[in-house]
Structure prediction request, 217 residues.
Amino acid sequence: MKVLRFLSGICIASMFLGVSELSVSAAMRIIPGYYEDYTKYLQREVTGNEKIAIKEDVKEVTYNPDNLREKSNLSKEQIYNMLEGNNLQSLADEYYEMEQKYNVNAIFLMALNMEESGHGRSSLAVYNNNLGGVKSKYGGYASFESWASCLEYIASLIDEMYLTETGAYYNGTSIYGVNVKYCIGGNWAENLNTIANELVSKVDNNINTNNIKIHNF
Prediction:
């Protein structure tokens, strides 16, 4: 099974300067593809002129349908950019936070919400704030106070009931295992994978594509 991984940002940039000092913050502002969640450091060498190399520790952006516990490593900014033009863009910060809190891949959560809510445009999403086709224990579909509260409910549900070995609906950590009980029958998992692939293709589309590498496994 293909695991989609992107190396985002510029790994190493170097500049030859006629000045002796350059602050880290100033250096960061002139590096394309800079994101606040990345770790950076400066290394200085003196070779006649001042040479400053800026190296970025790059995290791989990942969607692995065989292991939804594997984090996407997306930043809030990347998620926001990925959802440009989508009604769910308002939840960019929440997708990041849910991945950190519940250890469920953020790209999977985005794809699930898009599939189940018609990209936030379905009547269930508009009138019930229900982004996941969540059923009520009293019959019919559940209603939520907000999209954010629905997203947290879904992330918690997937974490505790589907991806934890003691969970009532556990069938492994793959999207196909979740499919068994979350949406019985149909092509739910494949539909989500298609959406996830489209999302991953948008990673860092604001920087030169020469700085993006695709790793297939």
About this structure: Residues 66 and 184 are 18 Å apart (CA to CA). The two ends are 7 Å apart (CA to CA).
